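pasting for the record
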Amino acid sequence: MDTSLLCFVVTAALSAYLIWFYLLARTLSGPKAWPVVGSLPGLIANRSRIHDWIADNLRRTGGSVTYQTSILPLPFVARRLGFYTVTCHPKNIEHILRTRFENYPKGPTLQTAFDDLLGQGIFNSDGHTWLIQRKTAALEFTTRTLRQAMARWVNRTIESRLWPILAKATTDNSPVDLQDLLLRLTFDNICGLTFGKDPETLSPELPDNPFSVAFDSATEATMQRLLYPSLFWRLKKALGIGSEKVLKESLRIVENYMMEAIIARKEAPSDDLLSRFLEKKDIDGNFFPSSVLSFIALNFVLAGRDTSSVALSWFFWLLMSHPLVEEKIINEISTVLRKTRGEDQHKWVEEPLGFDEVDQLVYLKAALSETLRLYPSVPEDSKYVLSDDFLPDGTVVPAGSTITYSIYSVGRMKAIWGDDCLEFRPERWISSDGDRYETPKEGYKYVAFNAGPRTCLGKDLAYLQMKSVAAAILIRHRLSLVPGHRVEQKMSLTLFMKNGMRVNVHQRNLEGDSGSVTSST
């Protein structure tokens, strides 16, 4: 082929592509897309504020709160590979999570990425495999016995470890990383509830626990798989390098720990989740094998640790800039304790709130829900589109593409929550008579705990744990952010604070009808 013919072919192909790309770009409503790389440059440029960037893009749609973009704008594959629909429209979310639930599974990309860590556990499976575990778990999570077991684990950790650590920080006038403390606390609690074994990572020395460290490393390495095309991590896995090497080594420690826990529970059953699953049979009448039990338990640990601790971190951060809300919560806790423990305020701080006391904290639950509205622990979730579909707002989603619903953005849209959507106002969750907690009538405005058939089974346990920990800290202590400490969001599937949350801990004085009393330390 001579040079002139080659130039003609290249020019014709390039011209054809640019015309094709121009027509494609006219159908995209999201961030600016470029030839070949699509919207990838915008994604990379905003990676440190990814959730706010998505919310900004959704606001620019002019009220439709749905947009479509592509990070692989190439002929023949653009409408499937690398094509994304992003929405925060409640009707669309209901369509995805309930109405056409079967058409929007986890999909091969997510499942493959998480397979080494979570296997076919409940949070990484679809269809029959998911349904078996869901039905089995649902029987356990709805029992009062399990909630009481959670209350015992939480209160034991608060009384024996969290309170002494905070008291020492108060006496020594030394700051603590509250996010780290809360992560340790929820990790110990969920391990106790799941395995009946307390790793005691929340101790005065703040020790490193091999299982905890390995679990963190494995989770972080797994999440990295989602940041880049799968070819990259598959190549690293084949070569045994980088994050894939870390993942392999960490999983070896995690798997050994899990096998030891399963053997221990087979020999001496208890009232933990693992023991309960050991007694259960699947739909086919077979007991779950050890390998499946290991993945089931790890799924619960992953869901039960990060979400509650992250929500509590943002809750306390918001309280520090909203003293009136904090005052209302303190008043509510005091009112409950006055009824249950009498007027002697020394008795209020002798032990953490009990199961029935925590259940009466309506305004505190509203404040936690308001936190999750603005800072959901899982800010985004994505689904695979099995077959071509129309969303309720008219958006066409092609089979093989990905659809993301931004939970973070839902709470920040005036069209959904009103002009005060960015305000931290727990009153929006309180009934008009002021004594009942109420969720929005349009249920899919609030999906911090997912919704539809995959609604979080541990929702009540999560609220119980968060309310117990929040009340235990607030009744004894007042927190203030360390001057100069920057609170930023971390680029992660869970809304961690990038730099933790360093706070100073102050002793709280409770003012009552009988005068003031200083909490004991």
